[in-house]
Amino acid sequence: MRYEGTVYRPPSEAESLLIQATIGCPHNNCTFCGMYRNTKFRIRSVADIKEDLLMARDYHGDKVRTIFFPDGNTILMKTDQLIDILYYAREMFPDLKRMTVYGSAKFLKLKKLNEFRLLREAGLTRIHSGMESGDDEVLRSINKGFTASEMIEEGLKVREAGIELSEYILIGIGGRERTQEHALESARVLNAFTPDFVRLRTYVPWKGTPLYEDHQQGRFLLLSPYEALRETRLLIANLEGPFELLSDHVSNFAPINGNLPNDKLEMIETIDRLLAVPENNFRQVDSRYL
Ligand code: SF4
Question: Which fold has domain 11-278?
């Protein structure tokens, strides 16, 4: 397998074979994100991707169970090319259980329901999607490239095609100014299309990004640990589900995990207990470890 630049993958794909299908991110414009800031976006050729899959088969044997195709927004690839790769991967690894890509609503909306159905048939089982917030004001300010109603529409479409959705919410991305709206609107949007997983991350300023500069200049006010926990509490209190909520990231102040709606009370009680711990016991991780 050949890799270019830093390869990012969700923690839930730690055991997966990683095959880069795209390099960089075709949006590359979110004000908080430093992942691909200096990388020129391109789509790798199907021939190169297949060659990597063949190399992986020679290296690992045919026992690979899960594959994640980085980099950012691989869902943007032409549907027939993606289908070609997915079928080839299944040929290489007959015991495959899961194949996944990144795809934000900006790129999900480029595909029709029928294309998602064909992708599901070819073996695309899950899409990791960075929603970050359901608040239009926050989405606009961070240049996410889609609105809350577009997120709902695309979420429903992907779910209707039978593809799992893993949605990422960024605690604190509304700053102090929009913490309430961010929590309440994110809950409203998630309840409207019920992804399979809601995964929480906490915003950490990343040097070299516009939002880092805003934070340095005092234009963006970062949440304190207690404020981040209160925002998480408000979000969870307003979530209906059904879905699994996970805090599977080093940036979070608390390991809040469970199934909604059943575990809601337990999760809220955990947060309340943490809010009784002195605030200086909580440490924010450095962006180098994200
Ligand atoms: S958050 Fe996702 S869509 Fe936004 S720039 Fe980063 S990789 Fe691209």
Answer: TIM Barrel (3.20.20)
Cα(81)–Cα(73) distance, rounded to whole angstroms?
A: 14
End-to-end CA distance of the chain: 24
Q: Which two tokens stand for residue 259?
A: 């199934």
- C-beta of residue 162 within 8 angstroms of C-beta of residue 124: no
At residue 46 the predicted structure's pLDDT band, cuts being 50, 70 and 90, is very high
CA distances from 24 to 29, 73, 147, 257, 284 (A): 12, 9, 23, 31, 27
> Could you give the CA distance from residue 29 to residue 37 in angstroms, rounded to a whole number?
8
Q: Which tens digit of pLDDT belongs to each residue from 188-215? A: 999 999 999 999 999 999 999 999 999 9
Cβ of 24 less than 6 Å from ligand 1:
no
Residue nearest atom 7 of ligand 1, based on CA coordinates: 72
Instruction: Name the closest-CA residue to atom 4, ligand 1.
Output: 30
For the chain, the structural domain boundaries read 11-278
Token pair for 85: 């790769």
Q: Is residue 211 lining ligand 1, measured as CB closer than 6 Å? A: no
- Is 18 close to ligand 1, i.e. is its CB under 6 Å away? no
Query: Which residue type sits at 42?
Result: R
The answer to whether the CB of 170 is under 6 A from ligand 1 is no
